């Protein structure tokens, strides 16, 4: 029984990695102030820690062997994970935005290179079908990441347009010209609402 668990370790690490990537795409693409979103952020941190620890343990125990390209890609992904741990500790707030972007960028690059390195190894190892499947998975991964970032950038641009504050060309000369004017429901405040 223990022997079969050893053989399947890379398989479940790969499955958890795919779940982490899917979760990452959602977290990057659709930020919102909802319980579901924040649960996914917590899941993202948990999955990242579990995948990183499991990969390190499997490597140390010899259950997971990497060639040079795979090891380089895994190292890059590990650097991205380290930035993620820092972000989890200090928070993904505006002062730490550069850390968050470094985590995302390095992790994306490492993940794509890791999947491509595994695809190349499978193709060269006499399993071209498996290599093609891994390569197709890498293409899908790249497309999902690109779609997530495109969706996010479009949503951010639309939000900035919809909530842009436009100041008047010239300031009001008296309080009667502010907001809805002297007949407004909040006069003398300059607040202007849809209240009739």
Explain this structure.
By secondary structure, the chain is mainly α. It contains 5 helices and no strands. It has 2 domains: 161 residues; 30 residues, no CATH class. The protein is 71% helix and 0% strand. Helix 1 runs parallel beside helix 5. It is elongated. The protein starts with a helix and ends in a 34-residue tail after the last helix. The N terminus is likely disordered.
Poorly predicted regions: 1-7
Spatial extent as radius of gyration: 25 Å
Structural class: mainly alpha
Q: Main beta sheet, described?
A: none
* Assembly annotation: single chain
Bin the helical content. over 70%
Count of DSSP strands: 0
Rounded average pLDDT: 83
Percent of sequence in beta strands: under 5%
Shape: elongated
Number of distinct helices: 5
The arrangement of helices and strands along the chain is: HHHHH
Q: Any idea how many domains?
A: 2
Q: In whole angstroms, how far apart are the ends?
A: 74 Å
List keywords for this structure.
mainly alpha; elongated; 196 residues; 5 helices; 71% helix; single chain
How is this structure best summarized?
The chain is an all-alpha fold.
List the helices and strands and how they pair.
Elements: H1 2-29, H2 35-60, H3 68-90, H4 97-124, H5 128-162
């Amino acid at each position: 029984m223990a022997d079969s668990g050893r053989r399947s370790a890379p398989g479940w690490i790969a499955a958890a990695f795919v779940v982490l990537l899917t979760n990452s795409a959602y977290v990057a693409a659709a930020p919102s102030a909802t319980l579901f979103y924040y649960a996914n952020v917590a899941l993202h941190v948990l999955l990242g820690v579990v995948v990183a620890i499991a990969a390190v343990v499997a490597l140390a125990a010899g259950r997971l062997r990497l060639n040079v390209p795979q090891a380089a890609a895994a190292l890059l992904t590990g650097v991205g994970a380290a930035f993620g741990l820092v972000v989890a500790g200090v928070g993904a707030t505006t002062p730490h935005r550069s850390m968050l972007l470094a985590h995302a960028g390095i992790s994306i690059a490492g993940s794509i290179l890791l999947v491509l390195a595994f695809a190349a190894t499978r193709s060269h190892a006499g399993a071209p079908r498996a290599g093609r499947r891994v390569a197709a998975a890498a293409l899908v991964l790249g497309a999902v990441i690109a779609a997530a970032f495109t969706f996010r950038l479009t949503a951010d641009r639309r939000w900035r347009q919809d909530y842009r504050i436009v100041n008047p060309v010239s300031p009001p000369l008296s309080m009667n010209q502010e907001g809805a004017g002297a007949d407004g429901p909040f006069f003398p405040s300059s607040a202007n609402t849809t209240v009739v």
